[in-house]
Design brief:
The structure holds two protein chains of two kinds.
Chain A: E1 4-8, H1 11-20, E2 25-29
Parallel strand pairs in A: 1-2
Chain B: E1 2-4, H1 10-22, E2 30-32, H2 40-48, H3 55-82, H4 91-109, E3 114-123, E4 129-134, H5 141-151, E5 156-168, H6 176-187, H7 191-203, H8 219-233, H9 271-287, E6 292-303, E7 306-319, E8 351-363, H10 372-381, H11 390-399, E9 403-408, E10 411-421, E11 424-434, E12 437-443, H12 445-457, H13 464-478, H14 484-502, E13 514-518, E14 525-531, E15 534-539, E16 549-552, H15 564-571, E17 575-580, E18 583-590, E19 593-598, E20 601-604, H16 616-633, E21 634-637, E22 644-649, E23 652-657, E24 660-663, H17 675-684
Parallel strand pairs in B: 1-2
Antiparallel strand pairs in B: 3-4, 3-8, 4-7, 5-6, 5-8, 6-7, 8-10, 9-12, 10-11, 13-14, 14-15, 15-16, 17-18, 18-19, 19-20, 21-22, 22-23, 23-24
Helix pairs in contact in B: 1-3, 3-13, 3-14, 4-11, 4-12, 6-7, 6-9, 6-10, 7-9
């Protein structure tokens, strides 16, 4: 097993970087943002303006289980 | 150890932070690494020098995201309620639309004034010509004629020769916005295309990071460029330097867009990547090259009959310098390269033989419509948006149908020429094409109405300096000088007051009628308005017993500016062309252009066929031709199920099974397939692939 994990946002970038690093490194991609403001409702509690980014968009669940 | 290695800017920092949070990564086990280019050295260096997550950058990204969401989510419903469902507003987007709307109105209001410009052509020895011009322009034809009259019978001689040294300096290396502009001018790329091609080059390690507003180059980069210049052009051509950043906030990124290795004169896996790389290579190399040395010669030509003089200008490049590699393009469409050549040898006192003097009528020009790239330039100059937002903004305003990118044909315009030749003055009327536009940004009718509403209701949100200031505050959050929740709190306070107060305003009468005049035939009034189905003209009043007639505006026509004449032309449609097989054929213009309709079927008209003049005979011809074409498309039908057909498509035969298009196996003749085989094919065919959402 590799000792180190490098996480980038794009598979093309991952491929290039993996080419530079040795066997001790595994490079994976998150495919862009893993979390965002939920779609559909306001998602922001303006009175709090605190940690609004707590829900995962549905399509990205997979990529966050690396 | 886990290394978070997303891009080195606010978006990238936020991605890393979210990854760390979402995966509950342990601080001790996690490092953030950043690099400006994906080369072996840069990556190894980055791993050697990791840092922690920069929460200020993350906060700046979050603040932008939240603020944009607040604006969009609070204003859009107001637009739905007060104007029309489905509309949207956005913080930067609406300001960009405003620029396009204001430019369009400026052009519409512009009153072109005519003037006369005088040029002269002299015959020199050995068939050489010398072109000269009069410094001043005449406002009237009479003024120009008077001047030519004075020149009758005159002799012309060189009264002065002046040589001036000059120099030209290379442009700074590329930032995101200058790359977008040059790729648009030189390669014809759209702004988003430039960014996606640049991203590919970056990710494959060929260029440094493509979202930047800095013109800095690292010392290694400057040395690399220097070595390449020495090798390719010689040491005389080297002039290394650092350019000054125009934008004060150029901290989001640290370097200009440049090649990762200057020894690679070519890179990229397809032609677009290669062309963009070539542009980046040349621009960067040229920026480290010597100035071009120019010698400008100005010859003054005396006219024996008047104290006024003509001048001829020429330019000689004494030392090419950076011009050997790269010349920056300009947005100015009228190239003025024609008189920049070398002047023939001349002496003071030399008499010149006149070929002709020409006074040509010209017209003042309004400001030009924006291209995608020139709108980016404007946004940057005004401090609205940042390298990461230019391309998405330009894409959004088009996707939301506030702005269309179009080419339009020009119109003919008459102009006058006065020529003095062989001691006689003659006058000619000529025509030229004017106003032709290529890939320019035009506002839609909706854009104008929404823009005016926003200016009235949310003057702040759509204010240029306010928007620029918000961007500055994001920068301050990123540098840790402003707390993001405070910034949003103070923004939201006044913003929400505006939102609340707008609840009380009455619905915008988007159907507001613009009276164009009276139809001479029916005596009824003609109006232009935005109806539910789009912009249209209306003949007659809504409350009259006879319902008014409506006709949609054609592409390019605006409610604000359409004339009575144009409107009357529109009412000629839809028009009954004739009858065929017992049913009428009518002609009209729809969303997809002009068409003929028969038995509920639509037949698109080509450019040669005008719906206003289409004959019955021609319409029948079009219908019959379409029928034959359609029949040729069907390879096989099935009695079992009429929703199943084997058709001939652009990319070869395929099976149409209801709404699904299915690929056919290559080893079988399409016409031999049985219904059962098709049924299996249709069932086993994959449903549409999900498109992976790209990072903005």
């Amino acid at each position: 097993m590799s000792k180190n994990l490098v996480i980038v946002e794009s598979p093309a970038k991952a491929k290039t970087i993996e080419g530079y690093l040795g066997k001790d490194y595994k490079v994976v991609s998150s495919y862009g943002h893993v979390r965002d403001l939920p779609k559909g409702d306001m998602a922001i509690d303006i009175k709090m303006v605190l940690n609004p980014l707590t829900r995962y968009p549905k399509t990205k669940k997979k990529s966050s289980k690396i | 150890m886990i290394y978070l290695a997303s891009d080195d800017d606010r978006e990238g920092e936020a991605i890393s932070w979210h990854l760390k949070e979402a995966l509950s990564l342990d601080d001790k086990q996690t490092r953030r690494i950043v690099f400006r280019e994906i080369t072996k050295n840069a990556i190894l260096n980055a791993i050697k020098t990791p840092r922690g997550l920069d929460l200020d950058l993350v906060n700046a990204q979050q603040a932008r995201r939240i603020l944009d969401r607040l604006v969009g989510f609070e204003i859009s419903p107001i637009l739905w309620k007060k104007i029309k469902r489905g509309l949207s507003a956005g913080r930067v987007q609406s300001v960009a639309v405003r620029l396009v709307v204001e430019r369009e109105r400026e052009i519409e209001k512009f009153d072109a004034k005519s003037f006369f410009k005088v040029t002269a052509l002299f015959d020199l020895e050995e068939g050489k010509k010398l072109k000269a011009e009069l410094g001043k322009k005449f406002d009237t034809e009479q003024g120009a004629a008077d001047f030519l009259n004075k020149c009758l019978g005159a002799t012309y001689s060189i009264s002065n020769l002046e040589k001036k040294p000059g120099k030209k300096t290379a442009a700074a290396p590329f930032t995101t916005s200058t790359l977008q502009q040059e790729a648009s001018r030189k390669l014809g790329f759209s702004v988003s295309q430039t960014m996606s091609v640049a991203q590919k080059l970056y990710e494959s390690g060929k260029i440094s990071y493509m979202r930047t507003d800095s013109v800095n180059l690292s010392d290694e980069a400057i040395n690399g460029a220097k070595a390449a210049i020495e090798q390719l052009y010689g040491a005389d051509y080297v002039h290394t330097r650092q350019y000054k950043n125009k934008s004060k906030s150029a901290q989001e990124a640290h370097e200009a867009i440049r090649p990762t290795s200057f020894m690679n004169q070519e890179a990229g896996s397809n032609s677009n990547e290669q062309r963009l790389y070539d542009l980046i290579w040349k621009r960067t190399v040229a920026s480290q090259m010597a100035d071009a040395q120019i010698e400008r010669t100005i010859a003054t030509i005396a006219i024996s009959t008047t104290p006024e003089t003509l001048t001829a200008q020429g330019e000689v490049v004494k030392f090419e310098g950076f011009l050997k590699v790269y010349i920056e393009s300009t947005d100015d469409e009228e190239g003025n390269g024609e008189d920049s050549g070398m002047l023939p040898p001349l002496n003071i006192g030399q008499l010149l033989a006149l070929d002709h003097v020409l006074a040509r009528e010209g017209f003042t020009r309004s400001a030009a419509r924006y291209t995608e790239a020139s709108l980016v330039k404007k946004l940057e100059e005004m401090g609205i948006g940042r390298p990461s937002t230019y391309a998405p903004t330009i894409t959004t305003i088009q996707k939301r149908e506030y702005v269309v990118k179009e080419s339009r044909e020009g119109i003919e315009r008459a102009f006058t020429e006065l020529i003095l030749q062989q001691n006689k003055i003659s006058k000619k009327k000529k025509t030229e094409m004017t106003g032709a536009e290529k890939n320019k940004l035009f506002p839609t009718n909706t854009a104008m109405i929404v823009n005016d509403f926003l200016i009235n209701q949310f003057p702040n949100i759509i204010d240029y300096s306010f928007t620029a200031n918000v961007e500055k505050e994001f920068d301050e959050i990123a540098s840790g000088n402003l707390q993001w929740d405070k910034m949003i709190g103070s923004f939201y306070g006044s913003f929400h007051t505006d939102v609340t107060s707008s609840e009380n305003i009455s619905k915008v009468d988007i159907g507001a009628l613009r009276e164009l005049g009276v139809d001479p035939k029916s005596g009824k009034k003609v109006y232009a308005r935005l109806a539910r189905f789009g912009p249209c003209v209306q003949l007659g009043e809504v409350d009259e017993e006879e319902k008014p007639r409506y006709s949609s505006l054609r592409k390019g026509q605006l409610i604000e500016t359409i004339t009575l004449e144009d409107a009357l032309e529109l009412f000629k449609l839809p028009r009954i062309v004739g009858t065929f097989e017992g049913e009428t054929i009518d002609a009209n213009v729809g969303r997809f252009g002009p068409y003929a309709r028969h038995k509920g079927k639509f037949y698109g008209l080509s450019k040669e066929d005008d719906p206003l003049t289409l004959t019955e005979e021609r319409a029948i011809e079009i219908i019959e031709k379409k029928r034959i074409d359609d029949a040729g498309k069907v390879i096989k039908c099935f009695d079992e199920n009429e929703e199943f057909q084997i058709l001939k498509g652009k990319w070869g035969p395929y099976l149409k099974a209801g709404k699904k298009n299915v690929k056919l196996p290559k080893d079988k003749e399409p016409a031999d397939l049985t219904y059962e085989e098709c049924l299996t094919l249709a069932e086993s065919a994959p449903t549409k692939k999900k498109v992976v959402r790209k990072k903005k």
